[in-house]
Batch of 2 targets.
Target 1
Amino acid sequence: MTPRPAKTVVRLQLSQEAATYIRARIISGELKPGSPVLADVVADELGISTTPAREGLQLLRVEGFLQLIPRRGFVVAPLNGDDIRDLFRIQALIAGELAARAAEHANAEQIAELDALHHELIAAFSRKDSETLEEKNHAFHRHINQVGGTRKVLWALSLMTRYVPREFYAQISGWPQATVDDHTDLLDAIRTHDAEKARSLMDSHIIHSGELLAEHFDRQVASQELESAAG
């Protein structure tokens, strides 16, 4: 197979960066349904050229986050809190299976790594370090998934998690405390190799996170609508 030119690879990476950036703003409620999304504005905000920015918007159109309207260009597609809840329900099914497998197969070294990550997460929570909290949360889940996953299952999970921005979770009311509490119980289930308990706890944890995000999204959209009406 002929390798892709370096320039093409870089452009693909920039396109993904643009897609990730706008996707997170949509899911967070910062860009409400119907809002225009301009490739040149995205390019300016990210410091990239217009071409990969436009390709990123095309990716989001394929994913259903954007619509391409004649004479208007790209606009944010209809989205509400229930859509977000559905995305997390699907993710919870896969993540729960991976947690159950991790509980069955995790060795002492892998459990120790999870324990270390969890203590780092608690420390970040205590000092209100949201950036580290999000980083350690991501690492905790990634480690569970890698312990319990196969390539195909991990691939399926990656399709869902790309719709779930991780950069702003600590700003959502209730999420930091829920993360500490839920991870503590989940780690105990994995440590004791209780697969079904780990599955149930992970399922509940993901759905709980989705509910918090959906409520945040609905509040953001409602607030913007009130501001628009007042203006």
Target 2
Amino acid sequence: MANPQRLRYCPEVTEAFPFLNPLNSIPGVRAGWIERVPDLPITGDRDEAMRLLRPHHEEFVRNFAGPDAGWWRAEQVHGTDVAAVPGSPQVTAPDGLPVVPGVDGLITCQPGIVMAIYNADCGAIWLADRKSGAIGLLHSGKKGTEGNILQVALDEMAARYGTRPADVVAVLSPCIRPPDYEVDIPAGIGAQAERAGIGEFLDCGLNTAADLSRFYSYRKELGKTGRMMALITKDIPA
């Protein structure tokens, strides 16, 4: 899906969120994040929401990576499987765009690959290996965290790219937190990062259920809500 053009740096979508600084300070790595789309009413289920959000997210990707950029997305089935891209099979999602079926995480070591994960209370985890250049993006909610998708991704990155956890920078996105949810997903992910020996882990500390002006919250909005989007890519070398 990725276009072999040089990816275009767009400061307003990569520098607006300080919690992404540990990733964006790595040469060649860029991480992005889109919050709630203002004044876009969403009253239906996930499929309807994704269809409504599609043009906004496509515009964001164009600003992030260039006008012809495509991107790789995980189907997100609340599991722990992780796929390497490109090369993984894809199916068409209800919003008309392709996804890698059955997975909740994507990894790559190839420049020019844009990867995306959606969330609306679950955590998105960005990963970047300072040494090997491998990157990853994970969807870790209650079930993904219970199954330790973070460790699954680290193991897969180690097997494919020689990644060592000590060389990895990991960032956790805004997600739901106590007292708005009975399970402390961020605490679980933080503990997993520590046990794995990740070199640098940052939890942004933001609660999606606490600020509906900025975030979508599946729990707070009783399922009638949209999705935020996390992105990561590696620039194509000169």
